[in-house]
Write a structure and sequence with these properties.
This protein has about 325 residues and is mainly beta. It has a single domain, classed as Glycosyl hydrolase domain, family 43 (Tachylectin-2, Chain A), CATH 2.115.10.20. Helix content is about 0%, strand content about 40%. The protein is built from no helices and 21 strands. The strands form five sheets. Strands 5, 6, 7, 8 and 9 form a five-stranded antiparallel sheet that branches. A hairpin with a 6-residue loop joins strand 16 and strand 17. The chain starts with 11 loop residues before the first strand and ends in a 15-residue tail after the last strand. Bound molecules: beta-L-arabinofuranose (FUB). The site of beta-L-arabinofuranose (FUB) has 14 residues, from strand 1 and strand 15.
């Protein structure tokens, strides 16, 4: 596959979570459905109903669409909008984590299981207890523990959980107040439940103060991803309204993390969403844009490009069309 070109063109794909399982590359994207409806601030245009797992033997090979891996018709609790998923492997089983609105219109995270990284996956009948909001990403840490990071503002409903309870119409946040962070929870040994209620992760500025809600160039919006490089935890995420992929680093998986910079400048389209994975000793960014559809926000395509670290552990900013 060529860098910075769509991995597949026969369907629209977004939100790629990439992993190496058994020496092969697997990409878990959302599957955008074309329609003629309007965009809105709640993400109503993202009406996805199923997942297809993509795979590549290596970055030089063609990308294979392994077909439908899970459909909302087979998940009893789901009402609509199956958004950005991720996958984790433990003890011979693959676990797909996915956000969707339940029948009441509240985003929850579901889990589904398979013996194959390409699926098909069998979903649990209920969402994960205490789960809320969108965009799960799971880190398999070196010590055998698994952590989920997730959340998203606006259509992702993160503002609605700031009291710990679901509030359908929360007051607008003060731009000088600390920005809502993503949720963090350790997965239990069964991989389909949390050990305890998710906590909020804090992202600090260079002075050790929490990033503010009005700091739209740097604060968390959606699409968290966690990877480890040379023993340091790298939390990366989209800034949404300003369309950057940024990152923050820390020494504890639960945070706090300190803002370090930008990984990806804005792409064609409103959303930006990514994952970072090591393949054969080099590091890659998987991301999406709307190039394939000529800029239609809900018709996206997933791509990859190499990512480079500086000697001090900072990441070189990627300009996607240079
Ligand atoms: O794909 C639907 C939503 O758009 C995702 O959950 C967000 O991260 C954004 O990419």
């Amino acid at each position: 596959m060529k860098e910075r070109t769509p991995l597949v063109t026969h369907i629209f794909t977004a939100d790629p979570s990439a992993h190496v399982f058994g020496g092969k590359i697997y990409v878990y994207p959302s599957h955008d459905i074309p329609h003629d409806g309007e965009d809105d601030d709640e993400g109503g245009e993202y009406i996805m109903e199923d997942y297809h797992v993509l795979s590549l033997d290596s970055l030089d090979s063609e990308c294979v669409d392994n077909g439908e891996a899970l459909h909302m018709r087979d998940v009893p609790w789901v009402g609509r909008q199956m958004w950005a998923p991720d996958c984790a492997y433990r003890d011979g089983k693959y676990y797909l984590y996915f956000p969707a609105k339940d029948k009441e219109g509240i985003f929850r995270i579901g889990a589904a299981m398979s013996g194959s990284p390409a699926g098909p996956f069998i979903a649990e009948k209920e969402p994960i207890r205490w789960s809320m909001s969108i965009d799960p990403a799971v880190l398999a840490d070196d010590d055998g523990r698994f952590y989920m990071y997730n959340g998203g503002l606006w259509g992702g409903q993160l503002e609605r959980w700031q009291t710990g309870e679901y509030v359908p119409d929360p007051p607008a946040s003060d731009p000088d107040s600390p920005a809502p962070g993503p949720f963090f929870a350790e997965l239990a040994d069964n991989m389909i439940s949390f050990k305890e209620k998710p906590k909020t992760v804090t992202i600090l500025d260079e002075n050790g103060s929490p990033l503010k809600a009005g700091d739209e160039d740097r604060r968390f919006f959606e699409g968290p991803w966690m990877h480890k490089y040379k023993g340091i935890y790298y939390l990366s995420y989209s800034t949404g309204t300003t369309h950057y992929i940024c990152y923050a680093t820390g020494t504890d998986p639960a945070g706090p993390f300190t803002y370090r910079g930008r990984i990806l400048e804005p792409v064609i389209g409103w959303t930006t969403h990514h994952s970072i994975v090591e393949i054969d000793g080099r590091w890659y960014l998987f991301y999406h844009d709307c190039e394939l559809s000529g800029g239609i926000n809900h018709r996206r395509c997933v791509k990859y490009t190499e990512l480079f670290y500086n000697d001090d552990g900072t990441i070189r900013t990627i300009f996607p069309y240079d």
